[in-house]
């Protein structure tokens, strides 16, 4: 597409899209309600986070298998229809399996099947939901709309655990109820996705195989220093985030004898802080960059370390809230970098690879911390904090050398 055609396309794009914003909210809200119920039921039933760790690890293996191809799919097919069909698949699978599960003694194979359905849906819906933005929103408005999307995500994360906590107070609620509700919300989300107005660039026909397309995507990202840096940061940040997510329910329930309501309120407060991060970065877009992101991670890593030594429930809750703020800021900043630095031809593969980077080591960390948190207890916070600080320092030093070498 030449410059004149691109200018005309930009004129047809919107500065804001309510359906796209609502879709982001609905998808993460349903997932939040279901994950809250699943995590609580599994830990309370088995007394530990081991099965939760195995399910999460399995889910991220499913992620990785799909992440290998989702980028090429998004660059070859209409991204809106990929988004619609992925949520429709998730809705049908979740509702069907909810009718088969025994809520009093959940069949292990159904738990793994549910996890597979959910993660297949997410592995296509989330990248397509990010890659579709330049087909809907003007380039000049991307940074601000990314912040609004993150705020919508955080709002869904806030209400998900809150509604989950309210539902758990009802005598009739069980795991089947959470599954069925999630399936219905996915169905609603698929309907919302249908009304999103897009103006995509023409799809470039290619004869290269999916494997070749994937290789070219890797080469493209590696050649672009900022994109490559965003991938390295994503790998390590998500490693630490997932370690904390797996540890949280055990720490609240077993280490500090907290209730489901306290866990729900802590997650809600974290999501509200994520909403605040979204609005702050929508107002001050100059902070949407990787340099400020390193500062965010250093502060959060130090907070993890301090919470391990203070060793009280309120210290954990404050870390959960700060984690929500930093994670929301992280999503806004890396997505803005990817959308601004990537060409449209490679944008699908860039986001596919970004989710591959997100999921790369999650199976390992999920299983490791699923078992390890019961042994380490509160000291798991010290481990996570030190991993975050040291890892980010090493990435920053490596990229500094690469930027210096490029200038020679």
TrEMBL record:
<dbReference type="Pfam" id="PF07690">
    <property type="entry name" value="MFS_1"/>
</dbReference>
<feature type="transmembrane region" description="Helical">
    <location>
        <begin position="147"/>
        <end position="168"/>
    </location>
</feature>
<dbReference type="InterPro" id="IPR020846">
    <property type="entry name" value="MFS_dom"/>
</dbReference>
<feature type="transmembrane region" description="Helical">
    <location>
        <begin position="180"/>
        <end position="196"/>
    </location>
</feature>
<feature type="transmembrane region" description="Helical">
    <location>
        <begin position="51"/>
        <end position="69"/>
    </location>
</feature>
<feature type="transmembrane region" description="Helical">
    <location>
        <begin position="81"/>
        <end position="101"/>
    </location>
</feature>
<feature type="transmembrane region" description="Helical">
    <location>
        <begin position="264"/>
        <end position="285"/>
    </location>
</feature>
<keyword id="KW-0812">Transmembrane</keyword>
<feature type="transmembrane region" description="Helical">
    <location>
        <begin position="377"/>
        <end position="399"/>
    </location>
</feature>
<feature type="transmembrane region" description="Helical">
    <location>
        <begin position="108"/>
        <end position="127"/>
    </location>
</feature>
<keyword id="KW-1133">Transmembrane helix</keyword>
<keyword id="KW-1003">Cell membrane</keyword>
<keyword id="KW-0813">Transport</keyword>
<dbReference type="InterPro" id="IPR036259">
    <property type="entry name" value="MFS_trans_sf"/>
</dbReference>
<dbReference type="InterPro" id="IPR011701">
    <property type="entry name" value="MFS"/>
</dbReference>
<dbReference type="GO" id="GO:0022857">
    <property type="term" value="F:transmembrane transporter activity"/>
</dbReference>
<protein>
    <submittedName>
        <fullName>Major facilitator superfamily permease</fullName>
    </submittedName>
</protein>
<feature type="domain" description="Major facilitator superfamily (MFS) profile">
    <location>
        <begin position="1"/>
        <end position="403"/>
    </location>
</feature>
<feature type="transmembrane region" description="Helical">
    <location>
        <begin position="346"/>
        <end position="371"/>
    </location>
</feature>
<dbReference type="InterPro" id="IPR001958">
    <property type="entry name" value="Tet-R_TetA/multi-R_MdtG-like"/>
</dbReference>
<keyword id="KW-0472">Membrane</keyword>
<feature type="transmembrane region" description="Helical">
    <location>
        <begin position="297"/>
        <end position="325"/>
    </location>
</feature>
<dbReference type="GO" id="GO:0005886">
    <property type="term" value="C:plasma membrane"/>
</dbReference>
